[in-house]
Structures are given as structure tokens and as C-alpha cells.
């Protein structure tokens, strides 16, 4: 199989964990790595992924080789392994736009080169690095920057994986422009590998499968990385609340008092994320069933597990001549795909596509 050439828009925590996951696979392509759901997707192994470039705005990252950029102070995700061949991929400047709006602006200083960068520079770099797939892992709420990267990928003919909750794949105009240009667009908002959404929707689906009637639910999430710092600003987190509600609705939640979202930044948690979820339902003779769970995960590796599937799905879709939004793999990979499905159907659709 040829390599999949990946660029990262945002060399942050998710990007760092994903690059390490690819490095582990490259070092030993046939080992079964924990958390790697599919050894091949469309014939591609994770070992076939190469990170060839990244874009960022952080003065501690721009202009450095990738391996050095991932030691910047804003990185909270654990270093599990050294990078191999991808370690020298360049971190290029990108226009800042709304990337550092809110609390992020107090911990990340924009590089001068980023203040001068243009969208045309980004598109040109994608062509020069012969990028197959652009992974957009920018801060939530940076809708202008996310759109700018989508336009640059469109101009360069690179498929897009939108890890953020900003609307791309579910925006009909955007997905039509990608379809017309023959470019693949997957999104929106990663559904973490085994995270809060996956577990919460599984509980809801279990209750509904036994004929129970949901009465209320909530999902509270706290963490200590820059994603949570950014999401602590109500102006930045609105799209995340909407996206999580979309995922619960796809699981069958209707007309129920439900709340799900990021609910706090606790710095000492670092890259740990803690989720408290509660689901209440009415069962036989009106009796109450109530489930309370606490889930603790490392946030960024949990994203890397999904990105590993999403980049291979994007390249597979492009190889098959698909373009615009692609329905089959998206409901398993994203919280807010253009068309959501319950988990069991989403998994079957993804595995059918991947085989
Ligand atoms: N961690 C997960 O499991 C998970 C799950 C679902 C969705 N997501 C989403 O993935 C996205 C990335 O999360 P993260 O934890 O990696 O965030 P992060 O804060 O660690 O990384 C964001 C990166 O984007 C950079 N950036 C800001 N503006 C930019 C611009 N204009 N151009 C280029 N780079 C810019 C920042 O400097 C930073 O390096 C977020 O939107 C998050 O909500 C993450």
C-alpha cells in the first residue's frame, strides 16, 4: 500500500497523541496495538500513515521540527514514545484568525510568522507537501480558522478530517463545494475512542432496547488540558454542547431533559478527563432505573484512536472516487456527522466500509 500523507492543522494534544500512535505502528507494523480497532481500513495499516507537515500559531511550536514542537509548554498529553520518520516534519505558520480567542490567548503567544501568514500560504504548503489528508484539530470555537483550513484543503485537493465541533461536514454548502471539487470531507467533532459520548450513548441504547422510557440524563466533563481551558469560556463551548446533544439524539434520546457538555477546567488533571454521567428511566410498573457512572480517561490518546481510523477512512474514500461528505464511516467516527446512527449500526456501517 502507498503511504497516506497527513498534515495536522493544530499541533496540539490530539495531534501529538495521534503522531505517537502512528510512530508506534511504523516501528512495528504487524504488532497488535491496544486500542487500534482495525488493523486495516481500506487496506491501509496505521503504519502506512506519515505525518509530513503541521500548521500552528504558537511561538513555541512554529518553525520547529514536529518532535520539538510537541515539547512546548501547552502540551499536556503524555509522551509515550519517540517519533520515528515523522520527527522532522516542519511546523509551519498559519493565520491566527480566531484560533487564540478567549483563555487560550493567556497561555499561548502567537508567533510573528503566524501573524504574517496567509490562507494562500497554507494551500501552497499543502500542495508542496503532497498532502492526502488534512486533520483539523484546532481549538473549539475557532470557526473562522477551521473554515480557512477547509478552504485551503479544498484548493489543494486534500481530504479533510474535522476533529472540531465547528460545522463543516454538516454544513450543506461546504459539503456541496467539496463534492463538486471531488474532495472528501469527514466530520464533525471526533467521537472519542472509548469516551464519554460512546459510554453515555451505549447506556441510553441499552435502556431503550429493554423498552425503558428515558426520563432525564446528564453528562458532566472536567479536564486540565488546553482543550478544557478553552472550553471553560462559554463563548467557545457552545458548539461542543450542540454536538454532544446531537450524539445523544442519534442514540434515541427524544424530548428528555438532557444536558451534556464540558463543565470545568481543573488544571492539575492535565490530560486526564473525568466524566460523570447519570441516566434515569421508567421501567416496569413505573419503577425507576438509575445509572450513575464515572469514567476517567487520558483525553488525547482517546482522540488518537479515532483519528487513526478517520485518516485511513478519508484516504480510502478518496481512492474509491467518493467526494464531499461520506455517510458510511462517519457516524462511528464523529459526534455530529451529517446523518447520525445508534452505535451498533454505526459500527456495522464503519466495518463494512473499512473491509
Ligand atoms: N481530546 C479529545 O478526545 C477530543 C474529542 C473530540 C474532539 N476534540 C477536538 O479536537 C480539537 C483539538 O483538541 P486538542 O486537545 O488537540 O486541542 P489543543 O488545544 O491541544 O490544540 C489546538 C492547537 O491548535 C493551535 N492553533 C490555534 N489556532 C490556530 C490556527 N489559527 N492555526 C493553526 N493552529 C492553531 C493551538 O496552538 C494548539 O496547538 C478541539 O476542537 C477538541 O474539542 C478532541
TrEMBL record:
It holds the Pfam family Inos-1-P_synth. The keyword Signal applies. GO terms for biological process: inositol biosynthetic process. Residues 195-300 form the Myo-inositol-1-phosphate synthase GAPDH-like domain. InterPro entries: MIPS, Myo-inos-1-P_Synthase_GAPDH, NAD(P)-bd_dom_sf. GO terms for molecular function: inositol-3-phosphate synthase activity. It comes from the Bacteria. SUPFAM superfamilies: Glyceraldehyde-3-phosphate dehydrogenase-like, C-terminal domain, NAD(P)-binding Rossmann-fold domains. Keywords: Signal. Residues 1-22 form the signal peptide. This is Myo-inositol-1-phosphate synthase.
